[in-house]
Amino acid sequence: xxxxxxxSRCLYDTSHPLGLEINEKGICSGCLIHEEKDxxxxxxxxxxxxDLVNDYKxxxxxxxxxxxxxxxxxxxxxILHIVKNKLNLNPLVVTYNKYFNTPIGIKNLANLRMKFDVxxxxxxxxxxxxxxxxxxxxxxxxxxxxxxxAGQTVFPVQTSIRYNIPLIIWGAHQGLEQVGMFxxxxxxxxxxxxxxxxxxxxxxxDDMLNTFNTLSEEDMCQYRYPSDSDLRKAGTxxxxxxxxxxxxxxxxxxxxxxxxxxxxxSFNRTFETYDHIDCYNYLNIHDHLKYLKTGFSKVTDxxxxxIRHGRLTKPQAKSLVSYYExxxxxxxxxxxxxxxxxxxxxxxxxxxxxxxxxxxxxxIENSHRKKNxxxxxxxxxxxxxxxxxxxxxxxxxxxxxxxxxx
Length: 406
Ligand SMILES: [Zn+2]
Hints:
Layout: H1 29-39, H2 42-54, E1 66-69, H3 76-86, E2 91-96, H4 103-116, E3 119-123, H5 127-141, H6 146-162, E4 167-170, H7 174-179, H8 192-199, H9 205-211, H10 217-220, H11 228-234, E5 237-240, H12 249-260, H13 285-294, H14 298-308, H15 314-324, H16 332-339, H17 343-356, H18 373-382
Parallel strand pairs: 1-2, 2-3, 4-5
The protein binds zinc ion (ZN).
C-alpha cells in the first residue's frame, strides 16, 4: 500500500475516505477550495441565491416554499435563520429521529420550533426495524450509523414528493467543505449518487436488501430513495447554502447562541462544542469506529477546519488532536442496552474492524489523558462557548421520543 501524502497546511492526508488530492506545492484540495471563501464575491453569490429561491416562493400563505431538514444540532438554527428570516421563505421543517437523542438535542429542537415558529414533521421509524438494520450494518459494515444517515438523507426527499414541495435547502456540502471535491462555483446540488457513494458507503436500501439476508423488503422500504421519474415529476432539487454564503460553523453557531439561545455542551473527544451534541453516540462510539477504520477521529476534522479558518496553527491543531483523539468513549452502555448486545460482542466487532483496516496497533481500550499547558492555551484561544450540558441535569438516557419543553 502506498504511503499517504500529507497536506502541508491541514491535518488531512490522501487516505481521507472522501478522497483528496495534493498539488505540487503540497496543499490539499480541501485547503485550496477553502481559499475561495476569501476571494469569492459573496454579495454576488447571495444575489444568485435570492434569484434561485424566488422561483419557489408560493403566493398562497398555506403552502410551504421549501423543506428544511434539521436536528437538535449541526447548523440547524443557522439554516433556518437564513431560510426563514433572511430569504423570507415558509419552510416545512423535517427531522428524522435517530433515537440516540440527548436531552440538550431535544431542548434545542423544541426551542427551534418555537423561536422560528415553524411546522416540524418528525419521522419515527419502528425501533424494532431500526435496531435490526443497525445490527446488520454494525456487524457487516462496521457502521452503527447507516440507518441514521440513510434516514436523514432520504426523509426530506420522500417528503418533497409526498407534499409536492420541490425545493430542499441543506447547509454545507461535506465533500466541498472537507476535501474540496467541488468548487463553490459549481453550485453543486443533492444527488442520489453522492448519497450512495459517500454518505452510505456504496450501499443504498436495495443493495442492503440484496446483500444481507437478515433484512426484508418491509424493513428497508422507509429508507428507499424515490425513483428518478418521481423526482423528475415533483421537480425535486436540493441546494446547499454553503455555496452562496461564506460558511463558518463556529461563527454561525455563536451568532445562534446570541440570537436564539442555542445550547452547547462539551464532549470528551473533541474541543468542538456545537456540532453533534444532539447524539450520545456520534462523538463517542461512532467516533471510535471512525478512528479504527480511518486512523483519525472527528477532532481531526474540527482541527483542520480551525486551521483553514486561521484560528489555529498546525502545531496547535496537532497538540489538540493528540490530546483528544484517543480519549475515553462515554455512554456506550446506553447503546449496548438499546441494541441488545453485550460489551464482549461489541469489542469483538471493534477488533475485527481494527484487523481489517490494519489498525492492530491501535489500542481499543479506553485511555486516560491529562490536559497539558499547550492544550489549555489553545482551547482558551479558540474560546468555544459552553452554555449547557449534554444531559441538562437529567438522567443519562436516550430520549427516544422527545416531548419537548414548555
Ligand atoms: Zn489541507
